[in-house]
Amino acid sequence: MQQKTKSGTFFPRSAKDSVSEDWSQSGAAQPLRRKEGHLDNQAKLLLLVNILFIAASTLSGAFVTVYLWKVKSQFAPIAWFTFATHFAGALTFWLAGAWIKRANKMNALRVGMAVSAFFYLLVLLLGQHTVQYAAWLGIVQGLASGFFWLAFNVVYFEITERDNRDRFNGWAGLLASGAGMLAPWISGLLIAKLPDKTGYTLIFSLSLSLFIVGVIVSFFLKKRQTDGDYSWQFAFRTLRHNPNWRLAAGALAGQGLREGVFGFIISLLVYISTKSELSLGNYSLVTSAVGLASYFLIGKLFKPTYRKWSMLAGAVVMTGVLLIFFWQISYTTLLVFGIAVALTYPLYSVPILSTVFDLIGTNAESAQHRVEYVVLREFALDAGRMVGVLLFLVVTSVSTDPATLKWLILGIGSGPLIAWLCLSRLFSIVHSKRTEG
């Protein structure tokens, strides 16, 4: 955030000093003074909006995939649904950037949650015909995701500072793990206990309702204007001229490579292995409980100086545990995989998230382009996700042999190592800038 005097007002810094400060709130309303490292009320309220969005998404997210599989047991409709989601999300980020830069970004946040509610309304209305419109539904979900996460990430950047960004990310992960623990378990229980498709109808309806509640809560967040005009070519110019952002974009694409496929394949494999939505809910309950504990410790103990090697440790475990599938793909091995990833994912995700946003807050000029930088961040993530899903589509169109799928999952799952290789140099650069002055 902007450097403040003891009275809390902004004052300019020299060029040398500005490199090591966080300019997150350039052009935004100044917060009241708070204890260093702690979260103020606006940050806590943003966490509430975030958890409502995630709870609504996790309540039904994995079961949309299962629902599509039960209607038509093929990978292609699910993969095209996922690809369309990421494509529409990336396009929405780019186009919505102008609206968020020139107008009230909180409205974009609300539109994202409202369109998410509309997505589940469409699923309810289409019923068994959902699979025929899988790609179109993916576009709707991508629009919702694009609007929400672009606005959320810009507001997150403005509300947090260097000294509390890791804490915010730790709490966000903790709460997300809590939602991921309870929501799918409740969904699996309801689907298993209720007759026919009643359970699916109920959980999709609950997701719709939570998104509406999220819209209401968002009105308690302060209106935040962003100064300046939106630069449509900014992301491309930055990649061409800024080597640090090329490293960051490569890391984000590596992260996305894994996320695009693993976002649906693991839950689908759990269902295929057990033929039970309740087992999928139990799987989420166990793995998210481990993730919750891990994020709690990270939120309490993590320091910026740990980022480089903690990310490597997380990436190595997340990739290495995939070798267990070469022995057997079963509920047991999937559970071992899920626990290992839940335990180490915070070591990987907190450093990459915090470092990229520290890069955005390098100085006042970069903070003025925070919307464009967030668009660039999401472009890189979605590019990696789309490449991963396209690879999955191409390979599975040729062969769905178990051995082929195992090698494909291992290759795509190595994305975290690619991310670390790209970001390891950047950790040193950002850390050296932080210690200047």
CATH class: Mainly Alpha
The backbone outline, from C-alpha atoms, is globular
Proportion of residues in extended strands: under 5%
Rg from C-alpha positions? 21 Å
Give the number of DSSP strands: 0
Straight-line distance between termini: 17 Å
CATH H level, superfamily name: MFS general substrate transporter like domains
Task: Name its key features.
single chain, mainly alpha, Growth Hormone, Chain: A, 0% strand, disordered N terminus, transmembrane, transmembrane helix
Description of the structure:
The protein is mainly α. It has one domain: MFS general substrate transporter like domains (Growth Hormone, Chain: A, Up-down Bundle), CATH 1.20.1250. It is 78% helix and 0% strand. The protein is built from 16 helices and no strands. The longest helix has 32 residues. The chain is globular, with a radius of gyration of 21 Å.
